[in-house]
Specification:
Structural class: alpha+beta
Largest sheet: 5 strands, antiparallel
Distance between the termini: 104 Å
Strand order of the largest sheet: 5-8-7-6-9
Order of helices and strands: HEEEEEHEEEHE
Number of helices: 3
Strand content: 25-35%
Helix content: 10-25%
Number of strands: 9
Amino acid sequence: MTDLPTPQTKRLQRPSWRDSRLVVGVLLVLLAATLGAKAVSSADDRVPHYVAAGNLVAGDQLTAASVVRADVRLDDDVADYLLAGGALSDGMFLVRDVRQGELIPISAVGTAQDLKTQRVTVEVDAVSATGLAAGSVVDVFVSSVPEGAATGARPKADKALDSVRVGKVIAGTGGFGSNAITSVQLLVPIDKVESIVESIDAKAKLTLVPVAGSPTSPAS
């Protein structure tokens, strides 16, 4: 009977540095670690800034409710925008408009003394206020009966303000249908405030005419 050959058992050998699979594996680990470190480094370059929470107009006071924080990377422009940090100062106002979602430029922030407008609340019929929202731009017409005119004379409309911003639209204060009244806060140039107040005191009718392309309320 022929003896069968006895199989030889091979010992497992440690992989050597000459093993191409080991070299490739090490390189992949190093590459992943490098990319991960670079991603973390890039994330660390982001700086917290303030972003407008809604449409803000000149004259608005900056408060915690009017801004949100966003971490952004601006490189050399980082100093041009308002950094998110501690509490906002009570004396911080916008001197020009900033749209919702935009970073707030430092150049757009000032004090009450820097403002060139004052807020004047006027009452207009609801139709005149339709579609208006904070940031809308309107022309203001004042209708009144000329002094010395005959009884029953028709009022004359004159443009009193050209392209002024709406700061706020307040819910209707009474009346129904065509008699409904809405209060609208206007950002009136300081040198025009007196004449508008005089028109209000004289019970003149004010009509707001939106300028083409100005922001409107979402429902309009």
